Amino acid sequence: MRKAKRRKIARLKTKLGLPDLEQAKSAVLASLRSPESQRSHRHAIDEFVLWYCSEPRLSFNKTVVTRHRIHLEDRQLAPGTVDVRLASVRRLAYEAADKDRGRHHQSADSMRD
């Protein structure tokens, strides 16, 4: 009997540079109405970007976010603080992925023309 081959699910691995992160950060902050929410998210995102850029990273994915959680917990921050900061990082990831998908669709459209 042959073993069934498992196919890996194709996932976009997003390699992000500082300009990409800044664009995603701007989109997150623009989506918030409250100045306090903007301040809180800006602080959390800036902190994440500093951490993310301080070590070599191949892609911005779930593993990176998990490692950032561990980093925050190692700093002995309160669980609520860790959760709030990770919410900001998740929004950043969503915006970055959305921008990446848009870029992918634009390049695909240009290939059709």
The helicity comes to over 70%
Helix and strand composition category: mainly alpha
Distance between the termini: 47 Å
Q: What fraction of the residues are assigned to beta strands by DSSP? A: under 5%
Provide mean pLDDT, rounded: 77
Question: How does the overall form come out from the CA principal axes?
Answer: globular
Helix count, DSSP H or I runs of 4 or more residues: 4
Unreliable stretches (pLDDT < 50, length at least 5) are 7-13, 103-113
Largest sheet: none
* Strand runs, count: 0
Give me the Rg, rounded.
17 Å
* H-E order: HHHH
Structural features, described:
This protein has 113 residues and is mainly α. It has a domain at 19-27 and 35-104. 71% of the residues lie in helices and 0% in strands. It has helices spanning 18-30, 35-54, 62-74, 79-112. Helix 1 packs across helix 4 and helix 3 packs antiparallel against helix 4. The radius of gyration is 17 Å and the shape is globular.
List the helices and strands and how they pair.
Layout: H1 18-30, H2 35-54, H3 62-74, H4 79-112
Helix pairs in contact: 1-2, 1-4, 2-4, 3-4
Keywords:
0% strand; mainly alpha; 4 helices; globular; single chain; disordered C terminus; 113 residues
What's the short version?
Helix content is 71%, strand content 0%. The chain is built from four helices and no strands.
